[in-house]
Amino acid sequence: MSRLEQMRIPGEPDWDAASAAVSDAYFPHQLHPRESRSSAAQADVSVTVMGPLRIARIGWGAEVAIHTDHPGAYGINVPLGGVLETQVGGHSVVSTSGLATINPPDTPADITRWSSTCSIVGVKIDRDFLRHEMDRVGGGPGATIPDQLDLRAPAGESWFRLVRSIAAQPADDPLLANPLVAEQLAASLTDAFLLAALPDDPLDHHLPRPRIVTRVLDALRADPARPWTAADMADVAGVSVRRLQEGFREYVGRTPRDCLTEMRLAAVHDELRAGATSVTDVAMTWGFTHTGRFAAAFRRKYGMPPSALLREL
C-alpha cells in the first residue's frame, strides 16, 4: 500500500491534536512542550506510506521533548535545521543538519530537545523488513546499525536525496499508488540506507569475483524486465551488495544497475524497431518507471529520442 497524506491538524490546533496526528503518521509518543506558553499553531505533519516503510515530515513550531519506544520499527530522524538531542541506549546523540539519529526498535528513547526551528524528515522502517534486507545486503555476523548516520558522506547523501525525491512526489502519483512499485521503492530505500550505515564485511572477500559477475549478468540477461533490487542481484551472486558492487567495478567497470539498464534499453530498441507503437508501454514493460530518465538514457545510447526511432520506421 502506498499513499501520501498532508495531515493537517483540524480546527485551532492544540498539543493533544498535534501529538495525535504525529502518532498516526510516525510513532506513538508522549509529547512535552518545553515552554508553558507555547502554541501548537505552527505544528504540521505529512506522510508518504510505502508498505513496510514510511516517510514523515514533522515540525512542531515550538521547542518540545518527546518519549517513545519506537514499537516495531526503526526510526531515522533527519533534522532539516535546528537541533535534535536524543537519549537512547544510555547515551546522547545530537544531530543537526547533515546528520541523522537512528533509533532502534522497541527501545526507550527520549528526545530531550527538539528545537523550535527543527523540522525533521523521519523514515520509519519495519523491524523485520529491515532485518530481512540486512541479511540480503550483508553486514557480517552480528553487524549492528550505528546510532547516527553522516549524510555528508557520499552514501548517506545519496540515500537522503532519494528519500526526499520520493517524499516530494504528488499524492496522486500513479507509480507510488502501484503496490509493486511501492514495495520496490521501500526495498531500494532500505538497501541504500543499510549500505550507508553498515560497515564493510571483510568475510565476503574470499569469493572469486569473475564467478560473482557472471552469475548476475546471466540472471539479468535471462529476465531483464524483472523489478531487480540490488539485494536481489546479491542473492544471485551469494554475496553482499557491497561485495557485488566491488566485483562489477573491478571486472566490468560499471555497476550492476548500469548493466541492467543497457540490457533494457536494447530490448526497448528492438521492440520499437519491430513495430511497437507506444514508447511508454514498451518502456514500462521492460522496467522503466520514470519516462524522463528513460528517454534521456535512450538518447545517450542511440543518439536520438525513442519517439524519433518510431518516426523513422
UniProtKB/TrEMBL annotation:
The UniProt record lists the keyword Transcription: yes
Originating organism: Gordonia prachuapensis
Pfam families assigned to the protein according to its UniProt record, in alphabetical order: AraC_binding_2, HTH_18
PROSITE patterns registered for this protein in UniProt: HTH_ARAC_FAMILY_1, HTH_ARAC_FAMILY_2
Cited InterPro entries: AraC-bd_2, AraC_XylS_family_regulators, Homeodomain-like_sf, HTH_AraC, HTH_AraC-typ_CS
Domain HTH araC/xylS-type: 214-312
Key words of the record: DNA-binding, Transcription, Transcription regulation
The protein, known as: AraC family transcriptional regulator
Top-level division of the source organism's lineage: Bacteria
Record flagged with keyword DNA-binding: yes
